[in-house]
Structure formats: structure tokens, C-alpha cells
Amino acid sequence: MPGPAGDVAAPGLAEDAAALRRALAESDGAVVVGHSYGGTVMAEGADHPSARHLVYITSYLPEAGTSQAEIMAEEPDPVVVEPGPDGALRIAGYDPETFGRRFWQDLDDDAARRGAWERVTAQSAAAFTTPTTRAAWQGVPSTYLVCVRDGSTSLALQRRHAARATASFDLETGHHPFLSAPEAVAERLVEILGAVREA
Predict the structure, then answer these.
(1) Residue 102: what are its φ and ψ, rounded to 5°?
(2) DSSP 8-state code for residue 10
(3) Where do the AB hydrolase-1 domain residues begin and end (predicted)?
């Protein structure tokens, strides 16, 4: 997505959703997978005939008219973001160790933890403050993967959004299951792909 580019002038939700629609336009049938903020992008951009199924990984299925900031405000202990000198929003109050305890507490590979921290970047405020205008999940079958041990997106908030999906499954992982339990994620995605092909 173009949004996580690390400066205040970077594209936001509208541009991220447009990029998704362009990718879908090049497909004759896709399973779209979104993690965290990616679910908000899917809500805005996956209302496309090529979108056959939506997969949300510890993510969000917002109603139209909802911004990412509004979703995050529902958290009892939200991750704090603040503008940097350039105005772009950055995670605030964390170092590699404390960030790892919240986001990667189930990731044992130190090199992977360091690499993930190095890829944490800023986003434009528009990614957080722009309300959605669509809710693609209302018209496309969807599956929600609930990450039960997530220290970032609360289980209660995940359950609320998972209730909007067609189906949901629990993973005993933190916020990044594709890093800590890639086999479990791949197994579920293969099942979904098989079901979509048979439909």
C-alpha cells in the first residue's frame, strides 16, 4: 500500500484503497487478506467484482463513515501515536523491547523481532483520520482470524469485528501470526482458497 510511506505528505486511506482496487482490476478472482489497518483498507477498496473472499487477520470491519482513529479509540489501552516533526504519525513511547512485548510476545526469533522493529514506519494522518465511504465486507464473503493473545488489538474488539464476518476462527497467537505461526495462517488460507475454488 502507498500509505505507510513515512511522511506527512504520504497517501492515506483513499490512495491505499485505490491501489487495492487497481490490483483487483488485474485479477479475475482474488482472496484478499488484510492485517490490522489493512482491514479498513479492504472495507474501502475491496468492493470489486474480482474480490471473491476477504480474510481479516486481527483486523477491522468498519461500518461506512468510520475512521481508523475512531476504531482505535474503542480500545481500553490503545497504542499511542503522535505526530513527528514532519507531521507524520508515529508509534509513541516504545523501544524495541517494549514494542516486542506488546506486538511480538509470541515470536521467539530475536533476528525476526529486530527485523520487524526496523520496518516499523510512520503513516500520514490521512490513513487514520479519513472515514470510510464503503463497507465491502457487507457484500463479499469473509473470514476473520482472531488472534487470541494479541497485545495490541484487544480480544473484545476483535470479537466485535469478527461477528460481522461470515466466519471466524481463533489462532493462539499475538498480533503478527504470519511471523509467529506462519504454518497455522497458511493452513487456514489454503482451506479458504479451496472453498472459494469449489464455490
Answers:
(1) -85, -40
(2) S
(3) 10-187
